[in-house]
Amino acid sequence: MRDSVGGGPLREKCEITPITLREARLFVDRYHRHHKAPQGGLFAIGLSTGNDVIGVVIIGRPVSRHMDDGYTAEVTRLCVLEGNRNACSTLYSASWRAARGMGYRKLITYTLNTEPGTSLKASGWDIVAETGGGSWSREFRPRVDEHPLQGKIKWQVSTDAEKRN
To answer: Is residue 7 part of a domain?
Structure first.
């Protein structure tokens, strides 16, 4: 189908849809560029055009035990099929609305320091820290690193009261 104005393809409208954690994890395992799906999660949100899922976001408890205060949640994975403009921003915004509706006061996520964060900026998130990256492996708890070890940017969106703290 063609757009009558520009002559290009007419895009179907994207729609936020419910999705199970299991379905979201399968989507991430199949399509994410550099990560596997996280082990668990609190909830997931899908983004679809018609019957086709084009993106998912998984929200869980913070990976860092220091951030796990009961009022902070973390976007642990966001995955969108290439070529779907504004899909990431839509999912980040939906994540915050859902988390806030459940009583969370802060939502955090991390991006690689080589990623621009355009979708996060467009969704009203702020950079709050830069991390050095590195391995989760320790002498007493060896791990096999299957993820990028470079530095990360920590992003946050929060209620007004949380921003003052």
So the answer is: no
